Amino acid sequence: MTGYRPVYIKLIMVTMALAPVLIGSVLLGLTIGSSGEIGAAWHVLLGQGEPDATLEVIIWQLRWPRVILAATVGASLSLGGLVFQALLRNPLAEPYILGVSGGSAVGAILGILAGFSFFPGLALSSFTGSLAVLLLVLLLSGRKEGSSDSLLLGGVMVNAFCGAIIMFLISISQSGQMHKIIFWLMGDLSTAGSDSLPLLLGVLPCFVLIYLLAQPLNLLLTGQDNASAMGVNVKLVMLVLLVTTSLMVSLTVCQSGLIGFVGLTIPHVLRLTIGPDHRILAPASILTGASYLVLCDLLARSLPSQGEMSVGIVTALIGAPLFIALLWRGRR
Fold this sequence. Notes:
The protein is mainly alpha-helical. About 75% of the residues lie in helices and about 0% in strands.
């Protein structure tokens, strides 16, 4: 028991450092916007001064669901990237590596073409597509159970096939549908509403289950043979982590669209700063990913443009140079 004490002390310290950042990000997301001044928004949050009905509607019915969605999506993508990079032992792995993004996009586009542009139709069609692709990838790699290379290769090939299907569906869609599809593919949080938030509760059990498997995930990094010798059921743990992570990512991506580089860069930054222990990395990834995407979404809707900028563009503009810098540092 005493051997675990330093880990929990470090976990508490990391949580106490990152939790205020998330709280501050949420408050900034609620108070900063194109409607109303920051001071008036703070008065609404604190319940001070004369009530402003319009600003209250903007904060609690527009900004609040959007901030919650951004935080949940960021946490899921970051934690998903952490798990996939550990399981596949590939620094380029992220939640989309097994074809989850491609299947989710195909399902969402089919839902849009079928007229399911409302909740929960679009969410269910996107979720169904992602699970179907995950099942296909697992079947393709079934002859090499536990092989990271076969899972990685299968995911890349299925993603490429889904990309071809997406291009075909866009080519046969109408102009109005095409705009909605392209904006969804770039990552869109503007459709967040209170009616879609209950679906996000499904990610909480996924967070808990992944954290409970953090120590077996640490042992898997030493090699599957060593982990098996230490009592880890390698096939079962890998299967549970793959399915749980894919489910977690699907529940969020089906509502936000495809947002890249969150699951790619956040785990790398955290490993460099707090070490490789997944018992600490998992909670840190949740808090950091949530804060990061809330701030990126705030930047996306604050930048001057003809229309609202997609949050996926902001994460790509920030994440790509950051990841290149990390690769350059690793090479040096």
